[in-house]
Structures
1.
Amino acid sequence: MDLRRVRKEYENRGLYEDDLVSDPIDQFKIWYSEIEEVGYLEPNAMVLSTVDKSGSPSGRNVLLKEVREDGFFFFTNYESRKAKDIENNEKVSLTFSWNELRRQVSIEGTAEKIPEIESDEYWAMRPHETKIGSLVSNQSSRIPSREELDTAFETQELKWRGDEVPRPHHWGGYKVSPNFIEFWQGRQNRLHDRIGYELTVQGWIFTRLSP
Ligand SMILES: Cc1cc2nc3c(=O)[nH]c(=O)nc-3n(C[C@H](O)[C@H](O)[C@H](O)COP(=O)(O)O)c2cc1C
């Protein structure tokens, strides 16, 4: 496999300042509906990057579950590695790769836990088995075997059969409040378009960045 020879030319109309709306959250929603329209698999998957106490970065996919004027929402285990990172350093980034349209959206901001009531609301919408899965997973911890996980699942599945599974305290949502959002559109000859929105005291302003 020689990845150096893999080369794709990107042909499309590009991204021009006149096409953009002034609020990057609205712009995100426009691009989100366009990637949804092409049937892209899990367009709401985003790489959440965090840094630990020593400054070492790590990234993993999580699913975007809501976008509002005030931020981007995802759900996870509050005792996981990413949660510990956030506890120590609220600065995070989110990266969406929407290759079907040769697009990328990069977001930088701060993460905070959402109110319990909002986590309860989304928990209530999750399928029963998914709730059991979250209940038994001690996310990010070392475990001896797959069997142990399956056994824990079966035990809890029996226990909660026919009953509503309560949200465990170790599970809930985060909101990422953005201060920078970049829209990247792949173009020919690697002369891609990049427009970065920065949050200033006057509100959002955007500038073009060199590819
Ligand atoms: C497409 C995709 C979506 C995922 N969505 C979530 C999610 O919404 N929440 C979550 O906790 N983990 C999600 N995961 C699993 C995480 O990538 C990760 O393995 C897990 O959260 C543990 O991360 P940590 O040990 O760095 O905290 C997803 C994985 C993939 C591949």
2.
Amino acid sequence: MKVAIAGAGIGGLCAALMLHARGIEVEIWESAAEIRPLGSGLMLMPQAVHELMELGLGNQLATLGVDIAAMCYFNRYGQQIWRDPRGHAAAANAPQYAINRGLLQVLLHNVTTDRLGAQAVHCGKAFESFEPEERGVLVRLRDPRTRTLTESRVDVLIGADGIFSAVRSFMYPIKDELRFSGRMIWRALAESEPLLDGRSAFMAGTRRQKFSCFPVSGSLHTRGRALLSWVAELQTGGAVPPKAEWNRRVDKALILRAFADWKWDWLDVPGLIESSREILEFPIVDRDPLPRWSFGPVTLLGDAAHPIYPTGHAGAAQAILDARYLADCLQSCSDPCEALREYEAERIQDTTALLLRHRMNGPEQVLQLAEARAPDGFNGSVQGIEEAELRRATQRFKEVAGINPERHMPN
Ligand SMILES: Cc1cc2nc3c(=O)[nH]c(=O)nc-3n(C[C@H](O)[C@H](O)[C@H](O)COP(=O)(O)OP(=O)(O)OC[C@H]3O[C@@H](n4cnc5c(N)ncnc54)[C@H](O)[C@@H]3O)c2cc1C
């Protein structure tokens, strides 16, 4: 069997490595001319880390990332609402790593070219169209710079080409618009003293305004420093900005104004924003869940199949879990089309539930509970919120996001 993957992001590269490990021939087509370390921080949930460890990447992850011990929730005054243990501290079967997205993608790309051979990864070739054939599928790819067309005949095509998936828009040419939450985020990296215990992620704020942050550099962590990946979020309303404006660099003054008085005894938020190198802007968007991802020998994976709000930091982990299920189904089923249907049946329910949870504000419900009960902050210890309520607010999200240690992958 031969499989083509459109998109060498986190999902596409993991799928390539997992298929190769199962003896399946793979080629990857990536529209970018080269793989460069882009993006700030990603959170890899324990189930996803387990899958990467199965690929033999445990040591590299432990060196690159930070083993996260807890997710801490704070109100807008910097007072702690709850501390929720994560990874081994929560008895999960693997650590939860926070990691620099760009470095993870470069690592996966290097490992893929080492194991599959450099000729398996074709950069500068964008998926353009596909045509099902009597046996398999004809894939057309175009070089965005020279406009040269390449054709490839394979048994299976996987669209792992992200939130603007061209494979998906080929399947669903109409009525599949981006859905804007009315909120914007600004992302950046900043070097700092370690915060909290040095191994905690946190989110703070209210329904309309949030600040979340986690350390992403294993090497700085071992030297007693931290590279913090932070996300500031504001309700702005309006329409979704055009694609060309995504990822644009913005003036710090814009965010500094909104967070000017977020100065707490353990963190000076404006100071951290001020010390950041470049701040990039994104809208919080998703697309409606799809009824189907698999059509004959073609399917979708990761953000192409189920783009979710980035606020729960769950997208990369879900793409990795998709890759594992898809590789297993293709290995165990003699009919590739049936394998793709099986994969879809395994994954579509959980990822749809996760997408909808994010629309209902996922784990941020903890912040909203605190805002509703104590809008002016806590007076002394946490008041009026039972731990059971806080647990309930995050439980279902944790189950579907792969954080819950009780829910392991079938082997
Ligand atoms: C540049 C970039 C920076 C990001 N930064 C962050 C971040 O800081 N924090 C965070 O939480 N998430 C970030 N994300 C999103 C995050 O990587 C994904 O949500 C998650 O990893 C799921 O990965 P994916 O492989 O499904 O999609 P992606 O990681 O988006 O990868 C999709 C890949 O497909 C390629 N592609 C697109 N169109 C085509 C085409 N027509 N043909 C072939 N290839 C195509 C893209 O160039 C990309 O390499 C970023 C994504 C990108 C692309």
